[in-house]
Amino acid sequence: MPFDIFVRWRPVPGSAEAEITRTHSPLPGEEAHATGISISLTPPEHLSKTVRPWKSGATLRHVFEATEAVSNRTVFDAVVAPVLPRVWAGETTNFLAYGHSGSGKSHTMIGYDFQNEEQFGLCLGAGREVFQYLSSLSKDGDQLGVGISMYELRGNTAFDLLNRTGQSQDKVPCHIREGADGKTHIRGETDTFADGRVRVRPITQSPCWTFDELRTTVLSGLELRTTGTSTIHDQSSRTHAVLELEIITRALLNAREAVIERQSELVPVAKRATDVYLEENMKAFIQDANGKYVPNPEYSIDQERIDKAEARKAEFEIAVRRAEDGVDAVFSSCRYDCLGGKLVFVDLAGSEYYHDKSMSTPASPVVRAKQTPQEQREGRQINTDLLALKEVIRARALGQARIPYRSSPLTMVLRGHFESSSSSGSNTNEGSSSRNNGNSEGYTAMILTVSPAATQFAATMNTLKYGNLVGVGVQAAAESTGKR
Q1: Can you give the CATH number for the domain in which 396 is found?
Q2: Residue 465 is assigned to a ligand binding site
Q3: Where do the record's region annotations for Disordered lie (predicted)?
């Protein structure tokens, strides 16, 4: 599984604040991109205890220092741009930002200056490049665009950031479920009709046909992003935010909509078939004097009635399969391989929740912000999510038979993105499909965002240790397979 880890240092918040001593360089005998990093700290004179330095293995692809020469565009060119050919081939690429609150995760992934291209976050930078690529293709045939989904994960629920309830600012909660097909589905609003149809919509995917549309949609979604108190500062993100960009056509959107409609039509028919079966079998048994159910000698099951209901159900199931085949047909008939290509950006919640109790050191004590019971519960869930993510990445890299996706809602959601590039089939979007033939291993990058401030030494070391543990597992897998 191609996997790279990057480190990005943010500038020191205050010019007079002491800094962490840090060095990084390619290790002897290693490939050019295998970089290690070491950090140390000289504690204030009034502290007698020393702070142990820490050094990583050669697990890093690149380290971005906090200089004026390093902009978001610099990071994009090194992290995202090299793997765009995978997207042009219809594959999925994943980018995860991990670090303590205030270390620059959102700045890196989303950005704050939405008019300055040099400061676009990775997601907007990717959107810009995608539209430039699409404009270079022939204008013949169905127009290519970008479908965007934005949602945040809090606890066991996903909240749709592109689907507001009426004119309010309330986010629509979505349910994370594993279907009978073994895939994870994020189910949004459910519409019930008078004729018995039940339409369960997937999380919102907004089609954008220009970059300006995409930028406006991203800004709209960010307005609903949740913030709260953490151990670092009171405006840090306390949810995981996921932003997906997929290359689409109107034909693909229509085909997926047809799947949803055929599924809604199947619901009342399937329910009727189940009801008929239960009715007939309930009539076929009665209770005796002892309360035991025994065959009813005065009633024979009307098998013809059951068969008729099942036959009608089968007709609607065939209609669903035909609609699903229609989605596949859109991919197979499209002249462009990029259709269905995806970029997935995950802005993880603050890493201070991970191994929170061990973060404090004499030189950089953690000041606990007062949290509500709800935020404490959310902190424990974030800790669980981050631990599960590390274990899933390592298990995938090692090729383990059992990968613990079910350990947390975060890993359940990411399962579709991790696997959609390495196996044919769909991702978390209902009715989606991929032209991938299963030969690709996919690609994932993790950007560790850290602060050089001496007061953040423990948090920075914690983030780097997390990335190193993930990288060690990936390296072990690469060595066992003889490739990197």
Answers
A1: 3.40.850.10
A2: no
A3: 357-382, 418-440
